User: Fold these one by one.
Assistant:
Number 1:
Amino acid sequence: MKKIISRIGLLLTLLLMVVSLSACSSSASQKNVLRDDKQTKTITWGVKADTKLFGLMDVRDNKIKGFEIDLAKAMTKQILGKDGKARFIQVTSQTRMPLLRNGNIDAIMATMTITPERAKQVDFSRSYFDAGQAILVKNGSPIKNVRDLNKNGDVVLGVVGSNSVQNIKKFAPKAKVLQLTDYSQALTALKSGQGQALTTDNGILYGMSIENPGYSVVGGTFTKEPYGIAVDKGQGKFRDAMNNALTKVEQSGQYNKLLYKWFHKVKGFDFKGAER
Amino acid sequence: MISIFQNYGGALLYGLGQTLLCSIIALIFALIIGSGFAILEVVPNKFLRIIAKVYIEVFRNIPLLVITMFFYVVIPMYVVEISGFVSGTIGLILYSSAFIAETVRSGIQSVDPGQMEGARANGLSFWQAMRYIVLPQAFRYVIPPLGNQFINLVKNSSVLAFVAGFDLMYQGNVIASDSLQSMSTYLCVGVLYLILTLPLSYYMRYLEKKLA
Amino acid sequence: MLTVLGAYSWINIRFLLEGAWVTVLVSVCSIILSYIFGIILGIIRYVQIKYLSAIVGFVIDIIRNLPLILIIFFTYFGLPNIGFKPDPIWASVIAMAVFESAMVAEIVRAGIVSIPVGQMEGARSTGMTYWQALRYIILPQAIKNMIPAIVSQFISLVKDTSLATIIVLPDLMNHAQIIYGQNTNYTIPMFLALAVMYFIVCYSLSLLSQYLDHRLGTAKKSGEVEEVVQSVER
C-alpha cells in the first residue's frame, strides 16, 4: 500500500513538472526572426511537399517544386538581397502550427487559409493567393456539388488540421468526415473508395485532377480561402517585410509569371481573377 | 490540460473506447490465429510446420504500418471496401498473431515432453493430447507474456491514426489541430493511454513474480 | 506489366533507396544510443539506489507504456520548449532512443535478475566490492543471456521507424507513399517493395539473433530471458 501511495505521489510530481514545462512554453518569444535571418542570410520556410502545383516532392531529384516554392524564393531575395537563401522544411497541415510556434521554421507558406481562429495564434501577411473550397469526385459520380453530400450521409475525406474539414460540417452537416495525415494519403484513400469525395481548396484539387484524369472538381467553390503567410506572434517587423516583399514581387510582374508557369495548364482556372 | 479535458472530453473518451474496442477484438482473433499457428509449429507434419514458420516470419518482420496501409489502400482498390477501423484491426490481428504464436509455442515447448508421451501412451491422439493435456499447462506459463502482448496491442493500435480509425491517437491529432495546443493535447492522450496500459503492466509483473 | 516496370524504374528505386538510407541511419543511431543508455538505466534500476532507482524505474514504466507515435510527437513538438529544435531526423532518433532505452533497460534488469544470487555472494566472498562483482561477474553473464532479446528489440526498432512518417521523416515508408501518391498504378508494386525491403533487413537481424543464441549456447537456459523477449517484442 505504501508503495502504491509513493508511486502516485511520484506520478503527481511528474505531471506537475510537465504541466509547468508546457506553461513556460506559452510565454511570448523574445527572439527577433527578421534580424536573425538577415544575419544568417537564410529564411526557413515551412512548405507542403505533397501538393501538386503548390509544393510537391520531385522524385527525380528529391527537391520540392511548386508555385509556393518559387514565390518563397522570390520573396526571400526581396527581403535578404540577391545572396539570400531559402531553406525549405516539409510540413503537413498537422505539424505546421507547432513547428512555427516552436521556432523550427520562420514562416509558413503551405496553402494556409487566413482564419480568425488562427490569427489568434499566429500573425498573417496579406493574402498571396485566393483559393476557395471545392470537392473532388470520381467522374460520373452522382455527387454534383457540396449539397449532394448532405443527402445520404456520404463520407468526405479531408486532412487533419485543415480548415476545410470544419467548413464541410457547415455545408453538409450529415456527411461523415475522415481526416487523413496529408493530401497524398487523402487522395489515395479517395481512389481506394474510402470516401465519396475529397474536399479542400480548389487549387490543390486542380493539381490532383491533372494527374488523375478519372477525377474532377465539381460544383465550383463554396467558401473563400485567402492563403496567407504565417509568422509567429510578436514578429511584426518580419510580417511587414513579408508584405513589402509580396508587393514588390507583384509589381515587378514576377508574380504573374509564376502564376502562368504553374497554372496555365489548369482547366477552369480563373487567370484574370488571380492576376495581380 | 484541464481545459482540453473540459472542451474535448467526449471526443477523447470516444477515442479511448475505440482504442479499447479495437484492441480487444484484435486480441481475441490474434489469440485464436496465433495459437493455431503455434500448434502447427510443433505438429509432426513438416509441411504444416513450414507454412506456420513462413506466416510467422513474414508478419513479424514487416512493419505494422505497412500491413495496415496495405489493407486500407490496396484491398479496397481491388477487392472489397473496408473502413479505416476495420483495416487497422485486421493489420493488428495479423501482426500480433505472429508474436502470440511465438509466445504460445515457447509455452508449449516449456511443457515437459513426457506429458505428451504419457498422454499418447494412454491412447490419446496427438490432437487430443494437445487439447486436453499440453495446452492447458502451456497457457499457464504464457499468461504474463500474453498480458504484455495485450499492452503492446493497445499501444500499437495507435496506427489507426494513419487510416482515420477514430482511435485515441486520431482524436488527439484532430483535437491538437483544432485547439492549436498540441503539447497539452498529447499529454492528455498520454495520460489516457497510461490509464489503459500501466495498471495492466504492473499486474502482469506481479503475476510473473507469483508464477516464477 | 508496363506499370510494374514503370514502378521499378531507376528513378523510383533510387528514391526508395534514399528513403531506405534514412531508415537505416535513424535505426543505427538510435540502436547505439539506446544500447548505451538502456544498459545504464537497467543497472540503475536494479541496484536500488535510494530514490534514484525508484524514479528511474517509474519513468521507464511510463515510457514503456506509451505508444511510440506519442513519444515522437513529444520530441518533435515538445523539445523546442526547452530550447532544442530537432529536424525530423533528429527528432526520430531521439524519440526512438528514449523509447528503446526504456525497453532495453527492462531487458537488462530482467537479465541481471536471472543470474543466480550465488554468483554475487561468491564474488563478494572473494573480496570483491559490490560494484566490482557487478562489473566483472554479473554483467558479462547477464549480457550474454540478454543478447537475443536485445536483438529482437532492435528488429522492432527498425520496423517502428516507419511510424515517424507522421512528422514527415523522409524514410522508406514516406518515400514509397510519395511515389504511389503521385501514381496510383504504382501502389501494389510499392507495397511489395516496402515489404521486401523491410523484411530483408529485419529477417537478417533475426537470423543474426538466432546465430548468436546458438553460438553463445544460451538456447537452453535462456528460458527466463525468452519470457522477457516475448514481453518486450511489439
Note: Residues 2-211 of chain B form a domain with the MetI-like fold fold (CATH 1.10.3720.10).
Number 2:
Amino acid sequence: MALLAACSPGEGVDLDESEGEGTEQTASGETLVAAIAGEPDQLDPHRTSSYFSFQVLENVFDTLVEPDENLEMQPALAESWEVSEDQLTWTFDLREGVEWHDGTPFTAEDVVFSYTRIIDEELANAWRFASVTEVTAPDESTVVIEVSAPTPNLLPSIGGFKGMAIVQEENVESGDITTAPVGTGPFSLADYSAGDSIDLTANPDWWGGAPQVSGVTFRFVPEPTTAVAEITSGDVHWTDNVPPQQVEQLEGDDAVVLGAAASNDYWYLAANQGREPFDDVRVRQALSYAIDRDAIAQVTQYGNATVNQLAIPETSAWHTEYDTYSHDVDQAASLLEEAGVDGLEIDMLVTSEYPETVTAAQAIASQLEPLGVTVTPREVDFATWLDEQGQGNYDVLMLSWLGNIDPDDFYYAQHHSTGSFNFQGYANTEVDALLDEARTETDEDARRDLYAAAARQIADDASYIYLYNPDVVQLWVPELEDYEARGDGAIRFRDVSITG
Amino acid sequence: MLRFTLVRAGHAAVVLLGVTVVVFALVHLVPGDPVRVALGTRFTQESYDALRAASGLDQPLLTQYLQYVGNALTGDLGVSFRTGQPVTSILLERLPATISLAAAALVVSLLIAFPLGIYAATHHGRASDTVVRVASQAGVSVPDFWLGILFILVFSVTLGWLPPSGYVPLTEDPLEWARRVAMPALAVGLVSGAIITRFVRSAVLESLGSDHARTARAKGLRARVVLLRHVVRNAMVPVVTVIGVQAATLLGGIIVVEVVFGWPGLGRLTYDAVAARDYPVLQGSVLLVAALFLLISFLVDVLYGKIDPRISVR
C-alpha cells in the first residue's frame, strides 16, 4: 500500500509563524508531529505511572544523570560525581547556568526538593531511595546524597527514567505541574489540548544544545491502523503505535522507516507457590519445559521479540547465558509424574488490558493439553487483575516488567522473599543472600557474578517462567533524521531534524 | 405549557437523582481498586494508604455518596483521580467535540433517512423499495468503526483527500473542522441513518394507507401536497422519537469511532475513565449523558405537541 505518500511541503503541521525568514539556526522551522497511543494521565513526572506521560516528559525534564543508547549512565544536570572511600557519600557537581523554562535559575536546592518530595510523600518511586538517608545541598551547585549501605545502582536509580526528574518547587506547590509542567529539558510545554494533543516548543537555551526542530506535537491516536495511516499520508512524522501484524509489510515499504530495538522489558509466567501443587518446584519446572516460547512470541508479538529463559536480554551488559529449559514435553511429563500430579487444572489469570496475555493463554493451553493439563484462561480488567494477584487468587498469571536497567530492578522486588512484588510467594534463602549481597557489592565483576548466580537459581526454581524480551517497534517518515529507537523505550526528539 | 415544563423538569430531577444512586453504586461495585491502578505495579503500603486517604476512598460509602450529591448540586463533580483536575471542567472541555460530531452525524443521517425512507414508502413493493430495504439492513448491520477504518484507508491513505484523524474546534477553524469531522460523521451517520430510514419508511407507509390520506387524495389534492402535508407530518411522531433516541445515543458517546479517529469527545473520556477506575470522571460523564438524554426526550415531548396538536399537554 501507500503510493509514495511523501509529505507535501508544510502539510498538516502548524508552524509558529513568528518571524517569517531570518530565524536563527536553532530550528529548521518545522514542528515534529508524533502520534502516541494514548493520553497522559497527568504530567507530574513523580506521580504518573503512565508510559504516555513519560513519552512526553522525556523531552521536557532532566535527571541528574541519564542513560545513553547502551543504557550506561551519562552526565545530565550533574556534570560529574564522586563516591567516598566508604561508598556511603555521593557528591554531584551540577552543571552551571542551567535555567528552568520560566527563566529562573536551576540550583542544587531544586534537586534536594525533588528527591525529598519523592521520599517524604511516599510517591510511587520512593522505593528507589530505599538506601538513601539524606540529600543535602552544601552550595548552589553541589548535591550530596548519603546512603546507609553501599549502593552501586544509585545512578540508574536516580537517572534511569524521567520518573526521577528534577522538578521545580514553585510549579509543584501551585499544582500547575499536573498540566503545565516547568522543566529544564530540551523542550518546554506550550499547549495542552485535552483528549487531542500536547504541543512542545524547542528550548533554545538547553544545556545540551538547541533542538533542531522548532517543536514537537504529541497527538493521541489510540487506534494503530489510524496511526499508520497518519504516517503513510504524511500527516504525522513518527509513531510507536504500530500493529505488530503489519511490521513485516512495513519493513518492505520504502515510504517509511521501521525502527526496532531489543528492549529490556520482559514477559513472564508466574505460578502461585502458595497453592498446591505449584509449591512443588517440579510442577513449575514441568510448565517451563512444556511451553514453546517461540510459538508464544510468534502469536503475541508476531515474532518481534527474542525468546529468553532469563529476564535480562542479550543486548544488556548484565546478560547471563541460560538455556536449561529446552522445549521438552517428555521431560515435563516425567516431572509431573514424579510430583504425583495428574489431570492438573490451571486457572490462568489474564487481562484484556494486555491482549498478549489473552493470546498467550490460548497458545499455552494447547501446548499443555498433551500433558493432560487443562488451562482455563480467566479474563478480567486490569484493576481486578491487580486485586486478584494481590490476594493470591490465581494459579498462573502472565505479565511483563518494563523499563529495567539495573539487575536489581529485574530481580529484587520480584524474587527476594521480602520483595514488594513477590506475589508468587517465592522464598529461597540462597537467592535472598545473593540479592542482598549484590545490592551493596561495588566491584562490578563480583556484582555481575552474584546476579548471574541468583538469576540461574531463580530460573532453576521457576519462580518466574521467563518467556521473551519484546522489541520496541517504531515507525517514522524518511524525512525524520537522526532518530533512533531505544531499548529502554525513552522517546528523545532533541537531536532529530526534518529534511525536505 | 408552563405547567407542562415544570412537571417534566420535576420528573427529570427525580430521574437524575435515581441515576446518581445507580451510577454511584455500580461504579463502586465494579471490582478493581482505583488506588492500585493509579499507583501501577511498584509501590509501598504507605504510598497506597496516602493516596487512598487523599481520594476520600477510606470513607464509608454512604458518606461518600452524600458528599458527592451535595457537591454535585453546586456544580462540583469532584476531582479526577488520574489528573487531579475538576471533573466539571474536564467534561466541559470534551463537550464541544462530542456535540459537534453528534450534530454533524445527525445531519448526515437525516439527509439519508428522509429522502430514502419516503422514496421507499411511496414506491412500496417495487425494486427500488427492495434496494433501500436491503441497503438499510446492511447499514444497520455494519459496525461504524469498521466503516471508519475503511474510510481512512480510502480517503486518507489512497486518495489523500482528508487527514486520517484529529480534531480542530469548529470555532477555531470551521473549514479544518469540516475536513476532520467528515469521515467520523459519515461513518456514524450512515449507520444511524440506516436505522432512521427503516422507521421513516414504515411510518410513512402506514400513514399512506390511513383514512385521512385517502380523504386528502379524494379531495383532489396534488400528490406532493398529500405526501408532505398529510402523510409525512402524521408519520413524524414515531420518527421524531427514534431521532431523539439516536441523537441522545450519539451524544452519549460514539466510543469506538472516537477512538478510531482520535476524537477528543465524551465517549473516549468515559472509556479511559473505566479503564483507569477514575470514579469521579466516570460518574460525571454518565451523569452528564443522562442529563442530555433527559433534555432531548423533553424536547421530543414538546415537539410532539407541535407536530400533532391532538397530543395534548396533560
Note: Chain B touches chain A through 50 residues (CB under 8 Å).
